[in-house]
Amino acid sequence: MNRNLIYLIVVISLGAIAYFFATDTSKNTIPKELRDFAVEDTSSIDKIFMADRSGKQVLLERKTGGWIVNQKYKARNDAIAYLLGTMKRIAVMSPVSKTARENIIKEMATVSTKVEIYQNNKLLKTYYVGSDVSQQLGTYMLIEESTNPFVMNIPGFNGFVSVRYFLKENDWRDKRIFNYTSKKLLSVKIDYPDTTEYSFQISHPDSAHLWVIALADNDTLKELDTLQTITYVNNSLWNIQFESFNHRLTDHQVDSIKSLTPYCTIHVKGKDNTEKLLKIYRKPAIKKEGNEVDNYGLLRKWDIDRMFAVIPGTDELVVIQAYVFDKIMKKVEDFRFKEESV
User: Fold this and answer.
1) Both ends of the chain: CA-CA distance in Å?
2) Phi and psi (nearest 5°) for 29?
3) What residues have CB less than 8 Å from 68, skipping those under 6 apart?
4) Are strands 113-119 and 45-52 parallel, antiparallel or unpaired?
5) For residues 64 and 176, what is the distance between their CA atoms, to the nearest angstrom?
6) Residue among 111, 58, 331 nearest 215 (CA)
7) Residue 245's closest CA among 197, 314, 199, 300?
C-alpha cells in the first residue's frame, strides 16, 4: 500500500478518535463526583432541605421520635421512606447531549428544585431536580457546580423521580390522629354532648381487665358483649387519619364552627401517659357534592360522608370521613350483651 495512503488513513483515524473524545458525553468521561447523586447510607441522613426559585421550601429533620416537617409537624413515614429510597437508588440513565446541554442548564436555572442532603449534621451533597423527560421516563438532574446534567431514574421504577421531591408543607405532614394498638390503649371516652345516653368509656388497664361505663348514669355495664368490646379495642384506634386540611373556610368561619358545641368528643389515653382529645363537628350538607338529598328527595341538613374535627393539641380544623370514624363513634348499647332471639 502506498506510504502516503497509509499516513492519510492514520491521520484520519486519529482525528476521528480525537473528535469522539472531544464530543463524547458518556458518563465515563465525566468525573464521578459530578455524576454521583446516590447516597448509599441513607440511615445517617438527618436533614434534607429543598427549595425552588419561587420561594417554596421545606425542611425535613430526623429526630428521636421520627421525622419533622419545618420544625413543627410530624412527617409522613411513607413520604420520607419514598424520598430516602429515591436518594439511595437514583441512577444515571444517560448524560445530556452536548447540543442540548446549554438549553437544559438554562431551563434548570429558572425551573428546578434545589436539594441539600445532610449526613451527621454536615452537608453531604447538593443537586438540582429539573423537568421530566417523557420519552425516557427520566428526570433532568444536576450536581451543584457541575455543567453536566443527566437524565436520572430509579432502575425498575416506571415513573418520574421528580414527584418525590415536593415542597408543599401539608403534603409532607402526617395525617394520623390516633395510632393505638390494644397494648398501648389505656382508655377511650366517646361523649355526645347533645345525646348523653349514647356516651361511654372503655377502660383497658391490662389484658385481664376490660370494662365499659355508660356515662349518662356512670354505671358499669353488667352484661358486657366481651367479643364486641375486644374487637373495638383491638381495631378501632389504629392508623386513624383525617382526610384533608381546610382549604375552603375563612378564619371567621373556622372560629364560628369551633365556638359550637361539638357533635362528639373522643378522648384517648395511652399507657405511655399520652392523651389526645378530638373534637368533632357536623359539616353542613353542600349542594353539588352529591349527598345533600336523602332517599325521600329532601334536603339534608348535615353532610353524611364528612365532618369537621380539630386536631388534638392544636386549633387546626380538618375534614374527616364518616366511614373512618364510624367504627370509633359507637353507642354504649353497642357493647351491651343481647340475647339472640329464637
Assistant:
1) 111
2) -95, -5
3) 60, 61, 74, 75
4) antiparallel
5) 18
6) 331
7) 314
* Per-residue confidence in pLDDT tens, the chain, 342 aa: 555 544 544 444 444 434 444 344 454 566 665 678 999 999 999 999 999 999 999 999 999 989 999 999 999 999 999 999 999 999 999 999 999 999 999 999 999 999 999 999 999 999 999 999 988 889 999 999 999 999 999 999 999 999 999 999 999 999 999 999 999 999 999 999 999 999 999 999 998 899 999 999 999 999 999 999 999 999 999 999 999 999 899 999 999 999 999 999 999 999 999 999 999 999 998 766 565 666 555 677 899 999 999 999 999 999 999 999 999 999 999 999 987 644
d(CA 129, CA 135): 17
Summarised one tens digit per residue, pLDDT across range 162-178 is: 999 999 999 999 999 99
Q: Concatenated DSSP letters for 137-152? A: TEEEEEETT-S--EEE
Grid coordinates representing 177?
390522629
Q: What sign has the CA pseudo-torsion 213, 214, 219, 222?
A: negative
Local structure of 248: helix, strand or coil: coil
- Chain-centroid distance of CA 317 in Å reads 18
| Cα–Cα distance for residue pair 29/23, rounded to 1 Å | 10
Rounded to 5°, the CA angle 179-180-182 comes to 155
State the cell numbers at 220.
358499669
CB within 8 A of 13, min separation 6: which ones?
Answer: none
Q: Give the count of alpha carbons within 13 A of 283, CB side only.
A: 23
Q: Is 226 helix (H, G, I), strand (E, B) or coil?
A: helix
Q: Which strands sit side by side in the sheet containing 219-220, from one edge to the other?
A: 219-220, 209-214, 200-206, 185-191, 264-270, 275-284, 302-310, 317-321, 244-245
- The enclosing H or E element of 66 equals strand 66-69
Amino acid identity of residue 78, one-letter, is: D
Let me know the angle formed at the C-alpha of 123 by 117 and 128, rounded to the nearest 5 degrees.
Answer: 45
